[in-house]
Structure formats: structure tokens, C-alpha cells
């Protein structure tokens, strides 16, 4: 069984590509396009790693980190996808306990390397 | 969320649902229609989830000490406001898609009944958006006060919209809908049009729900004329089932438990008369009701309105009268149409004849030339890509003709796609302007007005050409190789991604169009932001830059610049998509 990735991104296009590549890379992927779903999912499932866009409807990536670290008290690695020019958000993400970030436009190959690195730490 | 707001939402949602389901999607195979339906379903699920899922939050316990109680109430309020903000955001996103797709759908070649239905969808979804925006506003002030606008608006067009929506709600065609507006009622007034249509929709909606024979009548009169305002009286009379004496006493009672149940049970427009009363009274008005069980109900309300000025009404609100003006300018214009598809021929003829134009349609060059020689034709509309005839050659033959009356006739080309080569060819031949299908009636009217013979002189033809015909551009370039290698060379995946991309672009076009109407630059910036990643994936760097500029200008509040960039996008995007398809075909063949 491959490691389990939770992919949270409301951009269907990017999410489809990443989903495809992660699955090709041998991961099991659960994709969710809004924060509320992500929250519900996390109360039932324990993914090995979370990849999340910072801008999402209902529940932002920042709130997600806060939820995982402070409410669920989990140390699951979290990689944040951010847009260029959103440095302030990335800083907040790190302060709250994000492990890594990747800037849009996202290279799927780079993301896979980062995911593997977090999981092997 | 306050009870009244929830009811507002449910009421308007039912209006929209009715309008969407009224629209027969089988009638129309357009992708837009399917998208619209999908958007609506996801929208409804999301809103129902929020309205019917009980909110968490415990009741305050009377025995706790005051401080703690206060703290808890504050926390609850905060939670509630956050909740409202979240809900509004989440509802607005799919609703924007509904409105966007409805706008796109409106531009398809719809028949009259389809067109009216789409109009109903537009009206209902826009009303709903307004309320949701209000809820957001409401959560900010959280004081329970409703904000009222004071803007100029056209009363009869508002009544037309409301009545049309009511017609679509009416299941029984035997019931007459009557409108009677007194002559001395000013046509433009100043106040809150959204609230007025809400009140009218609620009252008429109630009548529709409880009627099975007879008529429903809306009358408007001036109750009293003051120096600076008119007190307008609106009366809704119906021959419905009426209300019993005991219930009549209660109908205006605020937040009566029984009514809440009714609103939820009946759904519909049943927004409770108490809320209607509140809205009327907040505008310094009053409302009265008379009813006899089994006979019918008369509800009257008065609201004071200052006389409005048509000059202050935004263009899109008086679009119909713009078309009226255009009609006057177009009347008598003789147009020769080259189009070989009978359906299209029929359609364009219908459209032009509605504007009192004289229309000749031909598919044969010699017959067309004869018409040009014998009649004073003001404009030629030429379909460029007809299956059996070449529109370019026809245009060329017209321009090369020895007869000056023939070779000077303005030619407007129309086509569903327009490549860079086409644009060059048009320029070389001397075609004056072009129209991209699908076009709106407004666009058709504008292009004819701009080009028809009296107005066009040779110099302006030249200028027009320089302005309209665009050289090959950076903004239409794409490169799919990178994305294909990201897909490990799997074409199925690439095709899937391209499909998603096109859908996003379509949604973007609809969204921006809508938000330009309300000049909501913030939403435009957000839409642009979302599209950026897609263009980056397709290595459409020129177009990506345009979108980056569009986002930046939206954020900076440069409305004119945003409009220009959007126009450029509309012009180039079809060619970009053509390039995508071209690349895909080549890759698929390999």
C-alpha cells in the first residue's frame, strides 16, 4: 500500500494534474476541493501527508494548518501551495507549522520530490 | 443568520430553482446549459446544507454567572458572524457561475421562449446574489438593520421583470395576470429597486401560491403628490382562497413560530408577510391587508419615492430603451445577407426585420450582385465560412466590381471562428468589420450602425480596418509539450486537462462579464487570479501576461483598463483555443 496523500486544492485543473502524477508516483490520493470537506475528512482519516492550496473556499490553507496542529494535534507533514507574491501568507503558514511550500506555477515533478523528501524525514 | 435573511434566501432560491427547472435543457444541447444546471445543483446542495444543518452552539445557561454568560454570547455572536461570512462566500462562488453561464447562454441563438426563460434565470439569480451580498453586509454590521439603497430606477421595467418572473411561477394558464399603472405614476423613481421587487415578488408569489381561479392584479397609483416626492400606492388583488379572520390578525406578527414552519414547508416565495411589512416600513411606508375567506385578498402598501432621472440609470438597466433608440436609427436600412444555412438565414432575417430593416438573402453571387446594382443596399453581411460557397471570394468579387455603387458597399463578415490568416485575408480584400459568433443583439446592432453606408466614408473604412484587424499576436500562442511531458506523455490525461482548462476559461468570461456590469473589480481580480495557473500550464505566456495585467489593474481599480484588457482577451482567446486544438490534433495524430 502506497503512502496516503490528502490533496486540497480548489483549482480543478492543477488538482487533476497533481492527482494524476501522485497516483503515478505510487501514492494513494484523496482530493478535496474545499476546506469544509477537508476538515470533515481529517476527523475520520489520517493521511501520511497533506498538500494544500493556501487559497481555498470556506476554510483556507492557513486555517487548515491551525486545525491540524492545534485542534487535531497531529504532526502530519503539510506542504503548502502558494501564489507568487503571497510571501506573507507563506510566513504565517510556517509559523503555524507548515513543513514546506511550493509556488505556482507548480511543477508536478518538483512537488513529488518535495513530498518524498517530507515522507523520508 | 437572522430568520428574515434565511427566509429571504429560501424564497429567492425557490424562485431560481423554478426558473432553472422551467428551462427545458433538452431543448438546447448547448454546453452552457448543462454547465448552468450543474452549477445550480451544486449551489442548491451547498445552500441547503447551510440552512438546514443545525448550527452548533449551546444555549446560554441562566444559572451561570453574568461575566461568563456575556463571554459566551459574544463568542456565539462571533461564531455566527464568521459562519455567515463563510456561508456567503461559499454560496457566492457557485452562484457566480450560475449567473455567468446564464449570461453566456443568453447569447446563444435562443428562441423567444428560451430567451425569456434564461432572462428569468438571470433575474432570479441576480436577486439572490444581491440578497447574499446583503447578508454579508448584515454580518458586518450585525445590528439587524437592513441597508437601503437610494438610486434612480425605471419603475415599469422593474414591474415587467417582476411580472415575467411571476408568469413563470404560474402553473395554471387560466389565471389572468393584470398590471395597471396609472398615467401619472412617474416612469423613473428614486429608491431601492431590489427591495421593491422583493416586496412585490413576495406578495404576488403568495397570491400565485393560493389561487386556483380568477385573476391576480397589480395596480400602481399616486396616493399623494408632495413637493419633493410621490407617495406611490401598490395594490395586489387576487381571487385566491383568502385568509380567515383569526389568521388575518397574526399575518403581520413578527417571527411567529407558525409562520416559520409555513415558510419552510411551502418553500416557495413564502417569505412571511412580517418581513414584507418590515421592508416596507423601513422605507417610511405602510402596508394593509383585507381578506375574505374563499373570496380573495387585497394587500396595499405605500412607499414614498422621489422622482428619478433617467440620466442616472446605468445603461444596462435601460438597455431595452437603448435598443429602441438603435431601432429608430436602423429603420429602413437595406441589408443584403449572404448565408447558405437556411436556419441561420431565417434567424438573422427575423432579427433584422424586428428592427424594421429591409432584408435580402442570397447564396448566389450573380443574384447578389444584381441586388447590389438595383437597390440601394446599405450594408452586406457576409458569412465567411459557408460550407458550399467561399465568403472571401464573394467579398473579393464585390470589391473588384467595376460598378462604384457595388464596390463601395460596406461589408461586415461574420464567422464562428476567426484565425490570424482570416484577419489578414479580410484586410487584403477590404472587408470593413467582423462579428464573431455567437453575437448578442446589441453587438449586431452596433456593428450595423457603425458600418452602414451613410456613416461610412472611405477614410473611416481604412481606420476601422487598422483598428479592428490585428496582427499575429503573442497572446494567442500556446505550447502543450511541457504539459504533455508532465502527463508522462499520456494523451488522455492531456485531453482531459485541456477540457478542464477550456471550462475554466468559459467560466472566467461569464464571470468577468457579469462583474463588469456591477463594476465589482475585486471579484474580477479573483477570477483572473484563478485562471493564471492554467495559462502557465499551457505555456501561453502572452495570454498569461494579459491576465496578470488584468488582475493587477482590477486590484488597482482601473476600470477602463480592465475593460480594455477584457476586450482584448475576448478577441484573442478564441484564436488561442484554436491553437490549442490544432496542437492537440497534431499530438493526437502522432
UniProtKB/TrEMBL annotation, chain A:
Keywords: DNA-binding, Phosphoprotein, Transcription, Transcription regulation, Two-component regulatory system
Annotated Gene3D superfamilies: 3.40.50.2300
Stretches assigned to the Response regulatory domain: 4-119
Lineage: Bacteria, Pseudomonadati, Bacteroidota, Flavobacteriia, Flavobacteriales
Cited SUPFAM superfamilies: CheY-like
Keyword Nucleus among record annotations: no
Entry-annotated residues carrying 4-aspartylphosphate: 53
UniProt-recorded name of the protein: Response regulator receiver domain-containing protein
Pfam families (alphabetical): Response_reg
Phosphoprotein among keywords: yes
InterPro entries assigned: CheY-like_superfamily, Sig_transdc_resp-reg_receiver, WalR-like
UniProtKB/TrEMBL annotation, chain B:
4-aspartylphosphate: modified positions: 383
Domain of life: Bacteria
Ranges of residues in domain Response regulatory: 334-452
Keyword Cell membrane belongs to the record: yes
EC number: 2.7.13.3
Keyword terms, alphabetized: ATP-binding, Cell membrane, Membrane, Nucleotide-binding, Phosphoprotein, Transmembrane, Transmembrane helix, Two-component regulatory system
Stored SUPFAM superfamilies: ATPase domain of HSP90 chaperone/DNA topoisomerase II/histidine kinase, CheY-like, Histidine-containing phosphotransfer domain, HPT domain, Homodimeric domain of signal transducing histidine kinase
PROSITE patterns: HIS_KIN, HPT, RESPONSE_REGULATORY
Domain named Histidine kinase: residues: 86-307
Transmembrane segments: none
Topology of the protein relative to the lipid bilayer: Multi-pass membrane protein
Entry's localization field: Cell membrane
Stored InterPro entries: CheY-like_superfamily, HATPase_C_sf, HATPase_dom, His_kinase_dom, HisK_dim/P_dom, HisK_dim/P_sf, HPT_dom_sf, Sig_transdc_His_kin-like_C
Catalytic activity: ATP + protein L-histidine = ADP + protein N-phospho-L-histidine
Modified residues (Phosphohistidine): 529
HPt domain ranges (all copies): 490-583
Top-level EC class as recorded in UniProt: transferase
Keyword Transmembrane helix in annotation: yes
Name assigned to this protein: histidine kinase
Organism: Maribacter sedimenticola
